[in-house]
């Protein structure tokens, strides 16, 4: 039967649920829900030209594409395209149809470089290379069993440091924004990200339906946030760390580990059974921290890059 590639339509029966299902089957380590998709569609910055695509056959979503420009990068013209096909429908050209439509959209909006995360498997990597993409950096997905695993014991903060919930900062989010901007700028990546738009950060991060302000932990020193771990949850059994970081002036004191341990303990107490996170394979300090917690690698992606023009 014919496969149709079109833009995701929230009002179309089965689009949101189908998109989320395909992503979950292809990437079970990532949290995604119909609600989070709707939020991204309606709240992502207009300069991102965000356009999620679906491949549909007989009314069923069998493939997806996340397509957007890195509007918060210091280098303009960088586009992101991530393709995932339902495991029962691979090998029939669905990914190629999605990729073609995604590349046309990004090129029309000024993209000069395309970046794509590809699962580290022979078939996936061959697909990317066949379409002109070259391998760059890689990243691990990691999983921790909160239900049956053993967490390190809770530790008291050092003198002058206190641990607080993310929700404690709801009245004034700018200190958290500044900390997130500083730590994100130092993350290993192919794309240099610079958070300068506070209002966009509030919409895309703080108000995101997966973000859990209650389980987010912030270390405070001298009256300001200096380290944090940002929690995301599906509202059921799955917890994920969206970002963990420390302000440059306070690194080397174990504050990020302290904050993450507090968040993990509270997530387990709240009934979450699995914890997920992700790290660049070159980020040895964070990989060591996660190994200390008991996380194990459960998947790997490779970033592929293609220059246009």
Largest sheet, strands/sense/barrel? 12 strands, mixed
At the fourth level of CATH, the homologous superfamily of the largest domain is Gcn5-related N-acetyltransferase (GNAT)
From the coordinates shown, what is the CATH architecture of the largest domain? 3-Layer(aba) Sandwich
Question: Helicity, in percent?
Answer: 25-40%
Tertiary shape: globular
Mean pLDDT across residues: 94
List SSEs in N-to-C order: EHHEEEHEHEEHHEEEHEHE
Instruction: Tell me the Rg in angstroms.
Output: 20 Å
Enumerate the strands of the largest sheet in spatial order, edge to edge or round the barrel.
Answer: 1-2-3-4-5-12-6-11-10-9-8-7
What fraction strand? 25-35%
Structural class: alpha+beta
- Work out the helix count: 8
CATH class of the largest domain: Alpha Beta
Distance between the termini: 34 Å
Short description:
With 309 residues, the protein is α+β, with helices and mostly antiparallel strands. 30% of the residues lie in helices and 30% in strands. The chain is built from eight helices and twelve strands.
């Amino acid at each position: 039967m014919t496969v149709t590639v079109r833009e995701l339509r929230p009002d179309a029966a089965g689009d949101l649920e189908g998109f989320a299902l395909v992503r979950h089957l292809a990437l079970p380590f990532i949290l995604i829900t119909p609600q989070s998709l709707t939020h991204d569609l309606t709240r992502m910055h207009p300069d991102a030209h965000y356009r999620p695509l679906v491949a549909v056959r007989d009314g069923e979503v069998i493939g997806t594409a996340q397509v957007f420009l890195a509007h918060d990068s210091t280098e303009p013209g960088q586009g992101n395209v991530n393709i995932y096909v339902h495991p029962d429908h691979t090998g029939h050209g669905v990914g190629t149809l999605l990729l073609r439509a995604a590349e046309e959209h990004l090129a029309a909006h000024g993209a000069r470089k395309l970046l794509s995360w590809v699962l580290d498997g022979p078939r996936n990597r061959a697909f990317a290379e066949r379409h002109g993409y070259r391998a760059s950096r890689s990243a691990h997905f990691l999983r921790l069993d909160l239900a049956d695993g053993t967490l390190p014991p809770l530790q008291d903060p050092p003198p002058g440091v206190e641990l607080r919930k993310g929700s404690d900062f709801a009245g004034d989010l700018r200190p958290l924004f500044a900390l997130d901007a500083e730590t994100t700028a130092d993350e290993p990546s192919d794309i240099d990200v610079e958070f300068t738009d506070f209002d966009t950060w509030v919409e895309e991060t703080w108000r995101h339906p997966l973000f859990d302000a209650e389980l987010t932990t912030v270390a405070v020193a001298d009256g300001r946030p200096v380290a944090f771990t940002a929690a995301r949850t599906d509202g059921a059994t799955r917890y994920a760390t969206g970002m963990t970081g420390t302000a440059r002036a306070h690194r080397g004191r174990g504050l990020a580990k302290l904050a993450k341990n507090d968040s993990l303990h509270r997530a387990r107490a709240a009934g979450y059974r699995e914890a997920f996170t992700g790290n660049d394979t070159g980020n040895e300090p964070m990989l060591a921290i996660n190994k200390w917690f008991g996380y194990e690698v459960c998947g790997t992606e490779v970033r592929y890059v293609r220059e246009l023009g």
